[in-house]
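Figure 2 data, in text form.
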Amino acid sequence: MSTYDDDNVQFDFFDEPETQEASPRRRRPGRGSGDGGDGPKRPKQPTGVVPLLRLAGLVALAIVLIVVLVSWIGACQGQSKQAEYQSYMDKVAQIARTDKQLGASFANKLVAGTLKQSQIQTALEQYAQQEQQAYDQAQRIRPPGPLRAIHQNLINAVALRAKGLAGLANAFADPADMRDATTAAQALTAQAALLQASDVVWEQLYRLPATQEMKAQGVTGVVVPPSQFISNPDVVSARSFGLLLTRLTGASTGGKPSGKHGDELVSVVANPGSVRLSTTSATTVKVSAGLTFVATVEDSGNFNEINVPVTLTIAVGKKTILKRHEIPLIQPAQSTTVSFGNFELPTNAFGAKATVTVNVGLVAGEINESNNKYSYTVFFTLG
Protein backbone atom coordinates (compact mmCIF):
# COMPACT_ATOMS: atom_id res chain seq x y z
CA MET A 1 0.00 0.00 0.00
CA SER A 2 1.54 3.25 -1.08
CA THR A 3 1.56 6.24 0.91
CA TYR A 4 0.81 9.49 -0.73
CA ASP A 5 2.09 12.71 0.60
CA ASP A 6 -0.76 15.05 1.17
CA ASP A 7 1.34 17.90 0.07
CA ASN A 8 1.75 16.38 -3.36
CA VAL A 9 -1.99 16.36 -4.08
CA GLN A 10 -3.10 19.53 -5.91
CA PHE A 11 -6.71 20.61 -6.37
CA ASP A 12 -6.94 23.04 -9.28
CA PHE A 13 -10.75 23.37 -9.54
CA PHE A 14 -10.80 25.99 -6.85
CA ASP A 15 -8.22 28.06 -8.60
CA GLU A 16 -9.49 31.45 -9.82
CA PRO A 17 -9.03 32.31 -13.47
CA GLU A 18 -6.84 35.10 -14.44
CA THR A 19 -8.38 38.43 -14.08
CA GLN A 20 -9.65 39.83 -17.41
CA GLU A 21 -10.91 43.24 -18.18
CA ALA A 22 -14.69 42.93 -18.50
CA SER A 23 -16.08 44.15 -21.76
CA PRO A 24 -18.54 46.98 -21.30
CA ARG A 25 -22.26 46.10 -21.60
CA ARG A 26 -24.29 47.33 -24.49
CA ARG A 27 -26.74 49.94 -23.47
CA ARG A 28 -30.22 49.25 -24.66
CA PRO A 29 -31.83 52.07 -26.43
CA GLY A 30 -33.30 54.31 -23.85
CA ARG A 31 -36.97 55.19 -23.82
CA GLY A 32 -37.58 58.80 -24.12
CA SER A 33 -34.05 59.61 -23.17
CA GLY A 34 -33.06 63.07 -24.04
CA ASP A 35 -29.42 62.28 -24.73
CA GLY A 36 -29.81 62.64 -28.49
CA GLY A 37 -29.43 58.92 -29.19
CA ASP A 38 -30.55 57.27 -32.35
CA GLY A 39 -33.23 55.08 -30.71
CA PRO A 40 -37.03 55.56 -31.38
CA LYS A 41 -38.76 58.11 -29.27
CA ARG A 42 -42.40 58.15 -28.00
CA PRO A 43 -44.42 60.94 -29.59
CA LYS A 44 -45.24 63.72 -27.29
CA GLN A 45 -48.89 63.88 -26.06
CA PRO A 46 -50.78 66.81 -27.58
CA THR A 47 -51.66 69.48 -25.20
CA GLY A 48 -53.79 72.61 -25.43
CA VAL A 49 -57.33 73.63 -26.58
CA VAL A 50 -57.70 71.53 -29.76
CA PRO A 51 -57.90 68.11 -28.02
CA LEU A 52 -60.45 69.45 -25.58
CA LEU A 53 -62.58 70.69 -28.44
CA ARG A 54 -62.38 67.33 -30.11
CA LEU A 55 -63.46 65.58 -26.93
CA ALA A 56 -66.30 68.01 -26.43
CA GLY A 57 -67.44 67.44 -30.02
CA LEU A 58 -67.50 63.69 -29.54
CA VAL A 59 -69.48 64.04 -26.32
CA ALA A 60 -71.97 66.38 -28.01
CA LEU A 61 -72.36 64.00 -30.93
CA ALA A 62 -73.00 61.12 -28.56
CA ILE A 63 -75.65 63.15 -26.73
CA VAL A 64 -77.36 64.06 -29.99
CA LEU A 65 -77.43 60.43 -31.09
CA ILE A 66 -78.90 59.38 -27.75
CA VAL A 67 -81.56 62.10 -27.92
CA VAL A 68 -82.47 61.13 -31.49
CA LEU A 69 -82.67 57.47 -30.53
CA VAL A 70 -84.83 58.16 -27.50
CA SER A 71 -87.11 60.45 -29.55
CA TRP A 72 -87.44 57.84 -32.27
CA ILE A 73 -88.32 55.15 -29.76
CA GLY A 74 -90.83 57.49 -28.10
CA ALA A 75 -92.39 58.39 -31.44
CA CYS A 76 -92.78 54.73 -32.33
CA GLN A 77 -94.39 54.02 -28.98
CA GLY A 78 -96.68 57.06 -29.39
CA GLN A 79 -97.78 55.95 -32.85
CA SER A 80 -98.43 52.46 -31.55
CA LYS A 81 -100.55 53.81 -28.68
CA GLN A 82 -102.39 56.15 -31.05
CA ALA A 83 -103.20 53.27 -33.39
CA GLU A 84 -104.41 51.10 -30.53
CA TYR A 85 -106.86 53.71 -29.24
CA GLN A 86 -108.03 54.63 -32.74
CA SER A 87 -108.73 50.99 -33.58
CA TYR A 88 -110.76 50.64 -30.39
CA MET A 89 -112.79 53.80 -31.02
CA ASP A 90 -113.49 52.69 -34.59
CA LYS A 91 -115.24 49.61 -33.17
CA VAL A 92 -117.17 51.76 -30.70
CA ALA A 93 -118.22 54.09 -33.53
CA GLN A 94 -119.84 51.16 -35.34
CA ILE A 95 -122.10 50.53 -32.34
CA ALA A 96 -122.88 54.25 -32.05
CA ARG A 97 -123.89 54.49 -35.72
CA THR A 98 -126.08 51.38 -35.51
CA ASP A 99 -127.86 52.66 -32.40
CA LYS A 100 -128.45 56.07 -33.96
CA GLN A 101 -130.16 54.48 -36.95
CA LEU A 102 -132.10 52.16 -34.69
CA GLY A 103 -133.25 55.04 -32.51
CA ALA A 104 -134.49 57.02 -35.53
CA SER A 105 -136.41 54.01 -36.84
CA PHE A 106 -137.85 53.39 -33.37
CA ALA A 107 -139.16 56.98 -33.16
CA ASN A 108 -140.72 56.77 -36.61
CA LYS A 109 -142.55 53.58 -35.71
CA LEU A 110 -144.01 55.07 -32.54
CA VAL A 111 -145.34 58.22 -34.16
CA ALA A 112 -146.45 56.65 -37.44
CA GLY A 113 -150.19 57.01 -37.79
CA THR A 114 -150.87 53.91 -39.89
CA LEU A 115 -149.39 51.02 -37.85
CA LYS A 116 -151.43 48.55 -35.87
CA GLN A 117 -150.55 47.50 -32.33
CA SER A 118 -149.25 44.13 -33.52
CA GLN A 119 -147.01 45.83 -36.08
CA ILE A 120 -145.51 48.09 -33.45
CA GLN A 121 -144.91 45.11 -31.19
CA THR A 122 -143.16 43.17 -33.96
CA ALA A 123 -140.95 46.14 -34.78
CA LEU A 124 -139.99 46.56 -31.12
CA GLU A 125 -139.08 42.88 -30.83
CA GLN A 126 -136.80 43.22 -33.85
CA TYR A 127 -135.19 46.32 -32.39
CA ALA A 128 -134.60 44.49 -29.10
CA GLN A 129 -132.89 41.63 -30.95
CA GLN A 130 -130.67 44.04 -32.86
CA GLU A 131 -129.72 45.80 -29.65
CA GLN A 132 -128.91 42.45 -28.05
CA GLN A 133 -126.50 41.84 -30.92
CA ALA A 134 -124.93 45.26 -30.27
CA TYR A 135 -124.57 44.25 -26.61
CA ASP A 136 -122.75 41.06 -27.59
CA GLN A 137 -120.55 43.06 -29.95
CA ALA A 138 -119.67 45.53 -27.19
CA GLN A 139 -118.63 42.69 -24.90
CA ARG A 140 -116.25 41.31 -27.52
CA ILE A 141 -114.40 44.59 -27.91
CA ARG A 142 -111.04 44.65 -26.11
CA PRO A 143 -110.26 48.22 -25.01
CA PRO A 144 -106.77 49.53 -24.15
CA GLY A 145 -105.79 48.83 -20.54
CA PRO A 146 -106.60 52.28 -19.08
CA LEU A 147 -110.12 52.17 -20.61
CA ARG A 148 -111.17 48.71 -19.44
CA ALA A 149 -113.18 49.86 -16.44
CA ILE A 150 -114.73 52.75 -18.40
CA HIS A 151 -115.68 50.43 -21.28
CA GLN A 152 -117.98 48.55 -18.91
CA ASN A 153 -120.22 51.63 -18.81
CA LEU A 154 -120.57 51.45 -22.60
CA ILE A 155 -121.72 47.85 -22.20
CA ASN A 156 -124.18 48.97 -19.50
CA ALA A 157 -125.61 51.65 -21.79
CA VAL A 158 -126.26 49.18 -24.59
CA ALA A 159 -127.76 46.71 -22.09
CA LEU A 160 -130.25 49.37 -20.95
CA ARG A 161 -131.33 49.90 -24.55
CA ALA A 162 -131.86 46.21 -25.17
CA LYS A 163 -133.83 45.87 -21.93
CA GLY A 164 -135.95 48.95 -22.61
CA LEU A 165 -136.90 47.83 -26.12
CA ALA A 166 -137.76 44.33 -24.92
CA GLY A 167 -139.91 45.83 -22.15
CA LEU A 168 -141.79 48.01 -24.62
CA ALA A 169 -142.39 45.01 -26.89
CA ASN A 170 -143.81 43.04 -23.96
CA ALA A 171 -146.07 45.96 -23.02
CA PHE A 172 -147.55 45.96 -26.53
CA ALA A 173 -147.89 42.17 -26.65
CA ASP A 174 -151.28 41.93 -24.94
CA PRO A 175 -154.05 44.13 -26.36
CA ALA A 176 -155.89 43.85 -23.04
CA ASP A 177 -153.09 45.77 -21.35
CA MET A 178 -153.80 48.70 -23.66
CA ARG A 179 -157.43 49.17 -22.63
CA ASP A 180 -156.61 51.37 -19.66
CA ALA A 181 -154.81 54.16 -21.46
CA THR A 182 -153.50 55.83 -18.30
CA THR A 183 -152.00 52.66 -16.82
CA ALA A 184 -150.63 51.53 -20.18
CA ALA A 185 -149.02 54.95 -20.82
CA GLN A 186 -147.31 54.79 -17.43
CA ALA A 187 -145.97 51.29 -18.15
CA LEU A 188 -144.67 52.34 -21.55
CA THR A 189 -143.08 55.49 -20.14
CA ALA A 190 -141.28 53.45 -17.45
CA GLN A 191 -139.73 51.16 -20.06
CA ALA A 192 -138.82 54.07 -22.32
CA ALA A 193 -137.06 55.70 -19.36
CA LEU A 194 -134.42 52.97 -19.67
CA LEU A 195 -133.69 54.20 -23.20
CA GLN A 196 -133.22 57.77 -21.96
CA ALA A 197 -131.05 56.52 -19.10
CA SER A 198 -128.84 54.72 -21.61
CA ASP A 199 -128.06 58.04 -23.27
CA VAL A 200 -127.03 59.53 -19.92
CA VAL A 201 -124.81 56.54 -19.08
CA TRP A 202 -123.09 56.69 -22.48
CA GLU A 203 -122.42 60.43 -22.25
CA GLN A 204 -121.63 60.92 -18.56
CA LEU A 205 -120.10 57.59 -17.58
CA TYR A 206 -118.43 56.56 -20.81
CA ARG A 207 -117.69 59.31 -23.34
CA LEU A 208 -116.54 62.04 -20.96
CA PRO A 209 -114.40 59.77 -18.71
CA ALA A 210 -112.88 58.06 -21.76
CA THR A 211 -111.98 61.44 -23.25
CA GLN A 212 -110.34 62.54 -20.00
CA GLU A 213 -108.42 59.28 -19.66
CA MET A 214 -107.02 59.51 -23.19
CA LYS A 215 -105.91 63.07 -22.46
CA ALA A 216 -104.13 61.81 -19.35
CA GLN A 217 -102.45 59.11 -21.43
CA GLY A 218 -101.23 61.68 -23.95
CA VAL A 219 -103.43 60.33 -26.75
CA THR A 220 -104.55 63.09 -29.13
CA GLY A 221 -106.60 63.15 -32.30
CA VAL A 222 -108.82 60.22 -31.26
CA VAL A 223 -112.50 61.10 -30.75
CA VAL A 224 -114.83 59.20 -28.45
CA PRO A 225 -118.10 58.87 -30.43
CA PRO A 226 -121.30 60.14 -28.83
CA SER A 227 -124.45 58.03 -28.92
CA GLN A 228 -128.01 59.25 -28.42
CA PHE A 229 -130.75 56.69 -28.89
CA ILE A 230 -133.60 59.09 -28.05
CA SER A 231 -132.99 62.27 -30.04
CA ASN A 232 -136.40 63.76 -29.15
CA PRO A 233 -137.57 63.04 -25.55
CA ASP A 234 -141.13 64.01 -26.50
CA VAL A 235 -141.43 60.80 -28.50
CA VAL A 236 -141.30 58.69 -25.31
CA SER A 237 -143.20 61.08 -23.03
CA ALA A 238 -146.38 60.03 -21.24
CA ARG A 239 -148.32 62.46 -23.42
CA SER A 240 -147.04 60.90 -26.65
CA PHE A 241 -147.79 57.39 -25.45
CA GLY A 242 -151.29 58.53 -24.44
CA LEU A 243 -151.91 59.88 -27.95
CA LEU A 244 -150.55 56.69 -29.46
CA LEU A 245 -152.83 54.52 -27.34
CA THR A 246 -155.82 56.69 -28.20
CA ARG A 247 -155.15 56.16 -31.88
CA LEU A 248 -154.57 52.43 -31.48
CA THR A 249 -157.77 51.84 -29.57
CA GLY A 250 -159.68 53.92 -32.09
CA ALA A 251 -158.21 52.32 -35.22
CA SER A 252 -156.57 49.05 -34.25
CA THR A 253 -157.08 47.57 -37.69
CA GLY A 254 -154.79 50.07 -39.42
CA GLY A 255 -155.64 51.68 -42.75
CA LYS A 256 -156.71 55.31 -42.92
CA PRO A 257 -155.95 57.15 -39.65
CA SER A 258 -158.92 58.19 -37.59
CA GLY A 259 -159.28 61.44 -35.69
CA LYS A 260 -158.08 64.91 -36.58
CA HIS A 261 -154.78 65.13 -38.46
CA GLY A 262 -153.14 68.12 -40.09
CA ASP A 263 -150.41 70.76 -40.20
CA GLU A 264 -150.58 74.43 -41.08
CA LEU A 265 -148.16 77.15 -42.19
CA VAL A 266 -148.18 79.89 -39.56
CA SER A 267 -145.66 82.44 -40.89
CA VAL A 268 -142.58 83.08 -43.04
CA VAL A 269 -139.83 85.50 -41.94
CA ALA A 270 -136.82 86.79 -43.90
CA ASN A 271 -133.51 87.13 -42.04
CA PRO A 272 -131.48 89.07 -41.20
CA GLY A 273 -133.93 91.65 -39.96
CA SER A 274 -136.84 89.34 -39.03
CA VAL A 275 -138.96 90.76 -41.87
CA ARG A 276 -142.30 88.98 -41.90
CA LEU A 277 -143.71 88.27 -45.35
CA SER A 278 -147.27 89.28 -46.14
CA THR A 279 -149.84 87.65 -48.40
CA THR A 280 -151.60 90.97 -49.01
CA SER A 281 -148.74 93.39 -49.81
CA ALA A 282 -145.23 93.28 -51.28
CA THR A 283 -142.29 92.99 -48.89
CA THR A 284 -138.81 94.40 -49.46
CA VAL A 285 -136.09 91.91 -48.56
CA LYS A 286 -132.47 92.95 -48.23
CA VAL A 287 -130.11 90.36 -49.68
CA SER A 288 -126.88 89.41 -47.94
CA ALA A 289 -124.69 86.33 -47.68
CA GLY A 290 -126.75 85.16 -44.68
CA LEU A 291 -130.18 85.51 -46.29
CA THR A 292 -132.61 82.89 -44.96
CA PHE A 293 -136.35 82.35 -44.98
CA VAL A 294 -137.73 80.77 -41.80
CA ALA A 295 -141.11 79.03 -41.97
CA THR A 296 -143.11 78.24 -38.82
CA VAL A 297 -145.29 75.13 -39.02
CA GLU A 298 -147.83 73.99 -36.43
CA ASP A 299 -149.48 70.62 -35.84
CA SER A 300 -153.18 71.50 -36.13
CA GLY A 301 -154.40 67.97 -35.41
CA ASN A 302 -154.63 65.72 -32.37
CA PHE A 303 -151.79 63.33 -33.24
CA ASN A 304 -148.05 63.29 -33.75
CA GLU A 305 -146.99 63.76 -37.33
CA ILE A 306 -143.67 62.60 -38.75
CA ASN A 307 -141.57 63.31 -41.83
CA VAL A 308 -143.61 66.33 -42.87
CA PRO A 309 -142.20 67.78 -46.13
CA VAL A 310 -141.83 71.54 -46.49
CA THR A 311 -140.80 73.25 -49.74
CA LEU A 312 -139.89 76.84 -50.66
CA THR A 313 -139.72 78.22 -54.19
CA ILE A 314 -138.56 81.61 -55.44
CA ALA A 315 -139.78 82.60 -58.90
CA VAL A 316 -137.99 85.50 -60.60
CA GLY A 317 -138.78 85.94 -64.27
CA LYS A 318 -138.04 82.61 -65.95
CA LYS A 319 -135.83 81.32 -63.15
CA THR A 320 -137.15 79.21 -60.25
CA ILE A 321 -135.17 78.31 -57.13
CA LEU A 322 -136.42 75.29 -55.16
CA LYS A 323 -135.48 74.27 -51.59
CA ARG A 324 -136.77 71.25 -49.63
CA HIS A 325 -136.72 70.26 -45.96
CA GLU A 326 -138.48 67.69 -43.78
CA ILE A 327 -139.80 67.91 -40.22
CA PRO A 328 -138.94 64.62 -38.46
CA LEU A 329 -141.62 64.94 -35.77
CA ILE A 330 -144.21 67.50 -34.70
CA GLN A 331 -146.68 67.06 -31.84
CA PRO A 332 -150.28 68.29 -31.51
CA ALA A 333 -150.65 72.05 -30.88
CA GLN A 334 -146.89 72.47 -31.07
CA SER A 335 -144.94 74.44 -33.68
CA THR A 336 -141.51 74.07 -35.21
CA THR A 337 -139.42 76.10 -37.62
CA VAL A 338 -137.76 75.23 -40.91
CA SER A 339 -134.92 77.39 -42.26
CA PHE A 340 -134.04 77.79 -45.96
CA GLY A 341 -130.78 79.40 -47.07
CA ASN A 342 -127.82 79.33 -49.48
CA PHE A 343 -129.65 81.11 -52.27
CA GLU A 344 -128.00 82.01 -55.58
CA LEU A 345 -130.20 84.79 -56.88
CA PRO A 346 -129.75 85.91 -60.49
CA THR A 347 -128.76 89.51 -61.17
CA ASN A 348 -132.18 90.30 -62.63
CA ALA A 349 -133.79 89.42 -59.27
CA PHE A 350 -132.81 92.79 -57.80
CA GLY A 351 -135.44 95.45 -58.31
CA ALA A 352 -137.82 93.05 -60.02
CA LYS A 353 -140.90 91.45 -58.52
CA ALA A 354 -140.37 87.94 -57.18
CA THR A 355 -142.74 85.38 -55.70
CA VAL A 356 -141.84 83.28 -52.67
CA THR A 357 -144.07 80.25 -52.10
CA VAL A 358 -143.97 77.92 -49.06
CA ASN A 359 -145.89 74.65 -49.05
CA VAL A 360 -146.34 72.25 -46.10
CA GLY A 361 -147.05 68.74 -47.34
CA LEU A 362 -150.27 66.98 -46.40
CA VAL A 363 -150.13 64.29 -43.71
CA ALA A 364 -152.15 61.07 -43.63
CA GLY A 365 -155.76 61.73 -42.71
CA GLU A 366 -155.53 65.50 -43.23
CA ILE A 367 -158.74 67.06 -44.49
CA ASN A 368 -158.23 70.84 -44.30
CA GLU A 369 -155.75 71.81 -47.03
CA SER A 370 -156.41 75.55 -47.08
CA ASN A 371 -153.72 76.52 -44.59
CA ASN A 372 -150.80 74.49 -45.97
CA LYS A 373 -149.59 76.77 -48.77
CA TYR A 374 -149.07 80.53 -49.14
CA SER A 375 -147.40 82.79 -51.72
CA TYR A 376 -145.69 86.13 -50.99
CA THR A 377 -144.64 89.00 -53.28
CA VAL A 378 -141.15 90.37 -52.51
CA PHE A 379 -138.63 92.83 -53.94
CA PHE A 380 -134.97 91.96 -53.40
CA THR A 381 -132.49 94.78 -52.75
CA LEU A 382 -128.81 94.74 -51.85
CA GLY A 383 -128.35 94.87 -48.10
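Caption note: Helices lie at 49-111, 117-140, 148-171, 181-216, 238-250.
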